[in-house]
């Protein structure tokens, strides 16, 4: 009877340990996502954790708590309110259990992202360092780089409060740094924030035991990190049953830096059902349970390996995506620097909006024309022609622009510096589908650099505009002439 009881109890204990371990693997995957990303937006966070929350009901919430210095607090709160959270502020947990505006201190770790958001709205902005037990777990996670669970606490996430624990895992701003040089001082200097799992302990235990029949066993979970141990969960007995203390077993395991004890006790129904059985029946039952246990352990190992493989694949994919984003950012930065360093004046206009408004100009444009960028953004380039808008070359320019073509001309325009600008060129820019989206214009000063002069009304070889026919694209929008 004792051997049969031990095998049944061990199955249930392993199921509970596996439930907690798989929850912890989900937190490690979230940490890897942050390590492989330059920046994680709120929508990206929501999308990444959605599947995990759907599959792991024992996880009450997943959170991101950035590290903020006191001089960044006001800007952080204002930016979050502007994002659509008008009541957001960093808050402390008062002794009364209420959340109140945070006191001034050197740094904060507010809950900034939390999913699911529904039911967890009131935790936004809560700083766990305002409560000693949460603060102790956070600081240990910071200094070790390992997942660290708080001692069991009453969760503030939901209106129906329940016993749970918070598991903290640090995220550092230089994830490529080798583990060998990650001293405690390094970890404190490079800490970027914390990813946090809010686990409901009763939900985790009951979820693990849901696949088993009661079988005349009662399971208890104890927090054995400190002495005396603290009872966290006790499985309810069936109606009319009592426990038999003489038939019991227990085991201890470590999870997220805390010691846990699982204790199983038989009920009188279990003992009564097995009285009078012969040795053969006991042997047969023992063999069957042994085979079931072996199959269970093989499945447990296989699932753990699959979880590790999925985490590794996701991390590699995210790392490749981050590398590609960095490469694209470097290319765009190089283009920006090249445009800024160009000697010719460059102007970019939006061909998707009426009247081709100016989107950007480079420093050479400001130097050549005498107009500051702020004075020209949103305007059409025709203001540079002053009152002289009947130049023959402009007819050809307008014709080219109306057809979405390249236009190059020698026509005079006026700058407040009295410089005469000549040879503007307009190059059409199209997207991947061939739709016209922008024009890039290039302007130079007149060769003489003299003051503006009266233009001839007759076109010459120097003032005649030319254009190249664009590729046909039925989706290209009509464009107003300059």
Care to describe what's here?
The radius of gyration is 35 Å and the shape is elongated. The protein contains eleven helices and 21 strands. Helix content is 37%, strand content 25%. Strands 15, 16, 17, 18, 19, 20 and 21 form a seven-stranded antiparallel β-sheet that branches. The N and C termini lie far apart (95 Å). It has two domains: 240 residues, Beta-Lactamase; 127 residues, PAS domain (Beta-Lactamase, 2-Layer Sandwich). The C terminus is likely disordered. Helix 1 packs across helix 6 and helix 1 runs parallel beside helix 8. By secondary structure, the chain is an alpha+beta fold.
Break the fold down into its secondary structure elements and pairings.
Elements: H1 2-35, H2 42-55, E1 59-66, E2 68-69, H3 73-82, E3 91-93, E4 99-101, E5 107-108, E6 113-115, H4 132-144, E7 148-149, E8 153-154, E9 163-172, H5 184-190, E10 191-200, H6 201-209, E11 217-223, E12 230-234, E13 243-255, E14 258-267, H7 268-274, H8 279-341, E15 345-350, E16 358-361, H9 363-369, H10 373-376, H11 392-402, E17 406-408, E18 413-414, E19 420-430, E20 436-445, E21 466-468
Antiparallel strand pairs: 1-6, 1-10, 2-5, 3-4, 7-9, 8-9, 9-10, 11-12, 11-14, 13-14, 15-16, 15-20, 17-19, 17-21, 18-19, 19-20
Helix pairs in contact: 1-6, 1-8
Summary of the model, kept short:
This protein is α+β, with helices and mostly antiparallel strands and 482 residues long. Helices cover 37% and strands 25% of the residues.
State the total count of DSSP E strands. 21
Proper CATH architecture of the largest domain: 2-Layer Sandwich
Which stretches are poorly predicted, pLDDT < 50 over at least 5 residues?
A: 447-482
Mean pLDDT: 82
How much of the sequence is in beta strands?
Answer: 15-25%
Rg value: 35 Å
What is the CATH topology descriptor of the largest domain? Beta-Lactamase
Percentage of residues in helical conformation:
25-40%
Work out the oligomeric state of the chains in this entry.
Answer: single chain
